[in-house]
Amino acid sequence: MRPLPGLWLLRVTMAAIGLLLLVTTANLVEAATASLPAPAPPARPSGPTGAHPAVVQPPGSSLPSGQACPPAPSPAELSLLGDLRTRKAALDRRAVAIAARQRALDAAEKQVSARMVELQSLQKQIEAAAARRRQAASADTMKLTKLYEAMKPADAAAIFNQLDRNVLLQVLDAMNIRRAAAIMAAMQPARARLVTAQLAAMRARRDALLPPPAPAAAGKGG
Predict the structure, then answer these.
(1) Do 158 and 110 share a domain, yes or no?
(2) How many C-beta neighbours within 10 Å does residue 219 have?
(3) Residue 110: inside a domain, yes or no?
(4) Domain interval for residue 116
(5) pTM score > 0.90 for this model?
(6) Cβ atoms within 10 A of the Cβ of 146, count?
(7) pLDDT tens digits along 47-93
């Protein structure tokens, strides 16, 4: 999972503050070191010529190179350094919180992914069960269709007048068109008209779901 945009900006800010702290600390250490008095050179023993010993430079005098000692860090600089340290500590705590949030989001994403896999598996099982039911229903419909096709039209019509509408539509849809016409001619007229309209609507809905036929290949011109 990609890191949060705020975490990247926080890392850049912490790096800049750390660099600023390093430079400020180095300047303060250099200033504090320079403000210390220079160590006195070792006294030279008086020789036979009676030369005078070297004079030790008093504290606060200029350096041997002739440069003045840098001043000690001011209270404002010390306050700035303390403020930078405080801000760095706050940013560190915020980075820890963002990292914890990132881990929580990663864990939640893993749980969602696992749940999606379970749901997909369950959906496949449901679809397979539905397909088996459709196959079983289709087999039963074909058995009924053959049974009614073997009957006399008048006997089949007497049953169709009382048969459940959904079952009747499935049987008529699978039946031979001539056998279906003979049976419907012997049915009650109102019942036959209603079944005819419903059968036409059912076939129209089914045809609307089918893909369009492929266009016929154009013949070669002569």
Answers:
(1) no
(2) 6
(3) yes
(4) 1-34+74-134
(5) no
(6) 13
(7) 444 444 444 454 444 455 555 566 777 888 888 888 888 888 888 89
